[in-house]
Structure formats: C-alpha cells, structure tokens
Design brief:
8-stranded mixed sheet; globular; 10 helices; alpha/beta; about 25% strand
C-alpha cells in the first residue's frame, strides 16, 4: 500500500480546504475523489462572505473572480410579510463546477496529490486504510452526505427531522443583485430560493425538512413553481442536506469527518459551504500535527470555533418550527437592521443571537400584520 501522512476522501470544499491546511502544516497529502473536475454539484451555489474569509486565511484568493457581488437579500415570511435590506457583507453565487474546481486546483498547487478514485471500503481501526491501496497516518472523510468514511465509523445517515431534501436548477430571472428566499407554511420548515449569478440568470430551488414520508421530484418541482412562478428551470438536480442538529462525533482514533460528512448543514438556512471550508481547514491542520490525540485536538478546535454558534442555530431551528416565530422575526428585521444582520450572520456564518435580538423578535409575537405583496407571488 502507498502511505501518506494525510489521505482525504472527497475533493469538494471541505476536502480541498483540508488538503491545503494539511500541506501548510508540512504533511504529504493524497486527495481522492470519484469525479474529474470540473463537475456539477447540486447546491444553491451561495458563497457567503465568511466562506471567502476562511479561504483567504488559507491563502486562497480570487475564488469569486468574474462573479459580481450580491448585495441585497429579500426574505418573505410564511405569512407573506417581507423584508428587503442590504446584506451585512456581500455574498456571491458561484456554480459549484467553477467554485469547487478553483479550490481543488488551489489544493494541487499547494502540493497535494489529486487522484480520481471511487472509495469502496475503509479501515478505521489502527492505521486507517482505503481500499487496501492507500494507508494514512490520518484519514479525513470529506465525502458528503453519503460518506463512506462516516459509515465505516458506524454512523448512518441522519434520521427524519434532521435531514432535508432540495431540488435546484437554473433559470432566466432578470435578477442580478438580490438574493430571494420565500418561506412557506406548507410542509414547514421549507423554502424556495433565487440566487442570481449576476448575468440575468439565477440558481433557483426548493427544499424542505424530511419528516419520514418520501417526496417525489415532481412534488419538489411543483412547490418550487408555486413559490417562484415561471417555467421549469434547466439542469434540475436533487440532493440531501444532513442538518447540524444531529451530528456524529467529529473524529475517532485517527479518522476525522468534515463538511456534510459531519452533518454540518445550517438547520436555519441550509447553508453548508462556510461550514465545509472551516471544518476542512481545522481537520487538515489537526491531521498535519500528527496522529497522537488528533481526534481530540480537532474536536476541541471545532468546539472553540463553532460550538456556541451551533448551539444557537440549533435553538433557532427548534423555535422556528412554528411559522409564527419566523413571521415575527421577519417583522422585527423589517423594523430593525441590527436584527436583520444577526439573522443573516446566524444563517450564513458563525453568528449568534443576543438578548436584544431575542427581545425584538419576542415583541413582534402575536402582532398580526397584513401580508406584504411579493413580486414572487404569495408564499404557499
């Protein structure tokens, strides 16, 4: 078997970030993925400012080159009330076939070795090994929602209530500068989105939390078209989102999990790129420091960086199971820009709620307001 200091399964944002961080620590790194790059990846394509910041800390610049900044967000509550405000910091919409290739090329430029390989079996006891071909001092599973590495550690997929499903495609909208999120009471928690690419087209999609009953592609498309009227988008693909409200341990022995494999999807918004880049970077740095205590070292760093935020996002997810809470939050955000900013930071980065924000939302509970007209139609 070939031996490497760090073997990473999955070359998406979490895996690429892990490879770059491990190389910065001096490790010999093998990065495995079943696909050639560029490749499509079903996703909302939203890249928040926090993700760009984490990549800059890894020395990766220019990931948003050629993609204009998105400066505003329109949020429609389940009851129809809407708020539109400038984002606290600009975001980007970058198709994953472009974004992921830029990251994986940065990993290769840092000295990581990239190989196309479909991983079928993983040994996690003692010295980790992949398909009896590659041995690792430390193994990192960054292989997404269906992670082979996660299964080898004995952890199955997230159960109902902690797993979402979404469908996305691309459509001509004319929108160039405004992210749009339309929430809905039907099958709540659920929402549709429109994230502009800056050229008059947008990534559009719909997602909801699974509650045990299967849903069809036709149903998901119908809900998308109800909330965002128009023709059927091109390139429709579905994907699962393992929510952070049910996470496995981040590591065991000399094996670590990062990104979607660790169920790091924001339950409040479905955002996962920031989590992927951050957790990948932390996993790669921990792995490069050597195998002794690597799981504990990684766990502690994750807790330091995301522990308080994950607690707050989990609480927000529980509270917002009642659509009335979301209605109140949107009303509060319409009245107070600071509340809007807190909500964005909690949903797209590592923000937390404060007492002032909680008080503003609580003050709006029970205050019914007429639904504001939406250019996208009424939330269903």
């Amino acid at each position: 078997m070939e031996r490497f200091d760090v073997v990473i399964v999955g070359a998406g944002p979490a895996g690429a970030a892990a490879a770059i961080a491990a190389r910065r620590g001096g490790a010999r790194v093998l990065l495995l993925d079943r696909a050639d790059f560029p490749r499509d990846k079903p996703c909302g394509d939203g890249i928040a400012a926090d993700a760009v910041d984490e990549l800059a800390r890894l020395g990766v610049a220019g990931v948003a080159a050629g993609h204009p900044a998105i400066t505003r967000l329109r949020l429609v509550a389940p009851g129809g009330t809407a708020v539109t405000r400038p984002l606290p910091r600009p975001a980007f919409t970058i198709p994953r076939r472009i974004f992921d290739e830029r990251l994986v090329r940065a990993a290769v430029a840092s000295g990581a070795e990239l190989r196309r390989h479909t991983v079928r079996s993983v040994v996690v006891a003692g010295e980790p090994a992949v398909d009896r071909r590659y041995a690792a001092t430390v193994l990192i599973g960054a292989d997404g929602a269906g992670s082979v590495v996660r299964r080898a550690l004995g952890f199955g997929p997230n159960p109902a209530g902690h797993l979402a499903i979404a469908v996305r495609g691309y459509a001509a909208t004319g929108n160039t500068t405004e992210q749009v999120i339309v929430t809905t009471r039907q099958r709540w928690p659920a929402y549709a989105w429109e994230f502009p690419l800056g050229d008059g087209t947008a990534n559009v999609g719909y997602g909801e939390v699974l509650r045990g009953a299967p849903v069809s592609r036709a149903y998901l498309v119908e809900r998308l078209r109800t909330l965002l009227p128009g023709g059927e988008p091109a390139g429709l693909r579905g994907h699962h989102l393992p929510l952070s409200t049910r996470r496995p341990p981040p590591g065991h022995g000399r094996v670590l999990l990062a990104g979607d494999a660790l169920s790091l999807i924001n339950p409040f918004t479905g955002e996962g790129i920031f989590y992927a880049v951050l957790s990948g970077a932390l996993a790669g740095a921990a792995a490069a420091a050597g195998p002794v205590g690597v799981a504990e070292r990684y766990r502690d760093e994750l807790r330091r960086r995301l522990g308080r935020h994950l607690r707050h996002s989990g609480i927000a997810a529980r509270l917002t199971r009642r659509p009335a809470v979301v209605d109140a939050a949107v009303r509060a955000a319409a009245r107070d820009g600071a509340v809007f900013g807190r909500m964005v930071d909690l949903g797209l980065g590592d923000g937390v709620f404060d007492l002032r924000t909680i008080g503003r939302i609580a003050a709006q509970m029970g205050r019914a307001h007429p639904a504001a007209p939406s250019r996208l139609g009424k939330a269903g």
